[in-house]
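[agent] plan:
  1. take the single chain provided in the ticket
  2. run structure prediction with default settings
  3. attach structure tokens to the ticket
  4. add a short note for the reviewer (M.T.)
[agent] executing step 1
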Amino acid sequence: TQFVRNIRYSILPVLGIDGSLHVRLLKVCSFTCQSYEKFILQEVLPHMNCIPNADSVLVMDNTRIHKSQLVVKLATAAGIAVEFLPPYSPDTNPIEEAFSVYKAWLRR
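[agent] step 2 finished; step 3 output follows
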């Protein structure tokens, strides 16, 4: 995606234990519950494994769209554990570091 100043972008990165697994970048729009569900169901869960294998835990913060019952139901049915980070705890959320990297890349 070519970065253009004064255009709003939404970034949805997915991190694995070894680093970034996938990134979705939307131009001029925000993620909705439906677009988030579609992203997780089509682009994240198919690359995950059931417990106790690697990539078997889906960790999300407490943003409202992340609490989709559909995502939780389908992930747990596939043997994937779902965990939510405590509210208001950016210091325990490694995705915050990734956001700064992606934002710097967009500004280049």
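[agent] step 4 note for reviewer: The chain has a mean pLDDT of 81.
[agent] ticket updated
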